[in-house]
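Page 42, continued from yesterday. The earlier attempt failed because a stray header line got pasted into the input along with the sequence. Redoing it now with the clean sequence only.
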Amino acid sequence: MRCPLCLTGEAQEMWPVRENPDFRVQRCGHCGGRFLFPQPTAEFLSELYSRSYYDAWGLQEEDGRVREMKVSTFALRLELIKRYKRQGKVLDVGCATGFFLEEAARQGFSPYGVEFSPYSSRIAAEKFGEEAVFQGVLEDAPFAPASFDVIAMSDLLEHVRDPGSVLAKTRELLKEDGVVMVMTPDTSSLTHRVMGSRWVHYKIEHLFYFDPRSLEMLAKRHGFRVLHREAARKTLTADYFYHQFERYPHWLLTPVCRALHRLLPKRIRQGNFRITIGEMVVLLEKIPLPEGASLS
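This time it went through. Structure tokens are written below.
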């Protein structure tokens, strides 16, 4: 079948998602991008992204420990963004309950968000105002063209039905000198090479998977070039890993995490540490187009 990312290569089936073998990972022979086929239905995804999506990890989104962990991770992303943009309007696409926006506002940015989940978007709107948070998908967001200095997508691009249309809308909303931050799983990472089909990021809700080349090709097709790329560090806890591998069982890591959860003191299990878990963070900028030219 034709690759929906590069629209050129032919994709071959690789393996089923371990949660449900009806969903299978395909790989494009041209760009190297991967995607899930078939995609889950809209009804499935709407049900998935309810409050239970967060509760299933054994952690509450608004729990103080989770807040500390996530805000610390987002501070790392903002540290990178501020090499290129130190202030202005920031749009967080897939803002969840608003932890990235909280930290962005604390650092002097004006916060706006888009969130698919009605549950999460309500919480974010209570924090930043109804006019600042749009519940739905980016393509339907009513924000004015060229109105944002920064557009952030943390753990977002792998979830959307059409990454190309998301980047097209992103270009429309971004100022000419703006920057885009994308954090997404990386199929060229060490964790993927070691775990293969059991890679923790192969999930039914992850519809697309990128390596640096496939993401760069997709970005270029929609009028962007790569400013910077690095392995994405995150602030996590042992408890986070325990709940993740309880929800997504792994033959080796689940029993290891269970043993650590049983043996480690609570203060150590809940202590923050920084680690890379097979994701990349990429900064993009617009490619100037000749006068009168448009992207096909």
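Notes: The chain has one domain: 11-237+272-286.
Reminder to self: strip header lines before submitting.
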